[in-house]
Design goal:
By secondary structure, the protein is α/β, with parallel strands linked by helices. Helix content is 38%, strand content 16%.
């Protein structure tokens, strides 16, 4: 009996310290299970470039901060250096996010493109906060460093990653995190199918469809016609005027897929009044976020995790 009690206490301690449910080895696996469960009512919170309001975007501290907030996915961006190392950066150059101009002021013709810089050169640069102040102690992380940080703790959406799919997959396989990583794109159905078929083990994948654009609407239609439903769709739309979003959600639910929306910018979710900033200014964030629950949304990518996670928890949508 004592052994049973001690074992139960040990499991409880493991959950408290690591977020690992007794049913799963770690928190990232528990999140991935919710992502793959079509019956789950859990709403997955993805944090855009980490906690960029308080730390430099795409930095290790920005990732650590959203893990501490109990976010489920951290969205990061990648590019490849001149010496073929994947690093975290949204832009294809380092001018906005680092003190490049200061470090290389004696070389006015020096290219700031990541593809023209070696890893050593990039590591010589300090990352900037959103308000433009450089932090001497923070450097741009490699994808390897980021994945070692997130491993078993949080899932990862690698944005701008599809074009580097093979290199990313090789790294996730080496580190044992493939099942914890998600990649999305707007590539045609057959192109993606061929890419995934080339590998025995793949990262999670979902298409991005802008349902009010001609190309996006066609891609959405092509995926709806497939026998095998995608894991989920990232749905973008410009305006709520024509009812396109509820109609798309109904089709996705009928197909058996899940729905990802981005509340980071109004232009991605139907216009003013539907995004994080509107929720931040409202007396009740539910006046914005409830509409997505009503449509069966399973993923919300946000710039305000500190706002949405408590609201989701209070309404029974965020408990592993």
């Amino acid at each position: 009996m004592k052994r049973f009690i001690f074992a139960a206490l040990a499991l409880a301690a493991l959950w408290a310290c690591t977020g690992a449910s007794p049913k799963y080895e770690n928190r990232a696996d528990a999140i991935a299970a919710q992502i793959h469960d079509p019956a789950s009512k859990y709403v997955v919170v993805a944090c855009h470039r980490g906690d960029w309001r308080n730390y430099p975007e795409n930095s290790i501290p920005a990732i650590e901060s959203v893990i501490a907030m109990e976010a489920d996915i951290v969205e990061i961006d990648i590019h490849m250096t001149a010496d073929s190392v994947l690093v975290l950066c949204h832009d294809n150059n380092v001018k906005r996010t680092t003190n490049f101009s200061k470090v290389f002021r004696s070389e006015p013709d020096k290219s700031a493109k990541i593809s023209d810089l070696t890893l050593e050169e990039i590591k010589s640069l300090s990352l900037k906060r959103a308000h433009g102040v450089a932090i001497d102690t923070l450097r741009m992380p490699t994808l390897r460093e980021a994945l070692l940080c997130t491993k078993d703790r949080i899932c990862v959406n690698i944005d701008k990653g599809y074009d580097y799919y093979d290199a990313v997959l090789a790294l996730t396989e080496e580190l044992g995190v493939t099942d914890q990583v998600l990649i999305k794109s707007s590539k045609p159905v057959d192109v993606v199918a061929e890419k995934l078929a080339a590998h025995e083990h793949n990262m999670m994948y979902m298409p991005i469809v802008n349902i009010q654009k001609e190309k996006g609407a066609k891609l959405f239609s092509d995926y709806l016609a497939q026998e095998e439903a995608p894991l989920a769709y990232e749905v973008c739309w410009d305006s709520n005027d024509d009812g396109a979003f509820p109609e798309a959600c109904a089709k996705i639910r009928e197909q058996g897929s899940k729905i990802w929306v981005n509340t980071i910018w109004a232009s991605l979710c139907g216009g003013d009044g539907n995004d994080d900033d509107a929720a931040f200014q409202a007396a009740d964030p539910g006046s914005v976020y409830q509409q997505y629950m009503d449509q069966g949304v399973s993923f919300i990518q946000t710039d305000r995790p500190q706002l949405i996670i408590p609201w989701l928890k209070a309404h029974g949508h965020h408990s592993l």
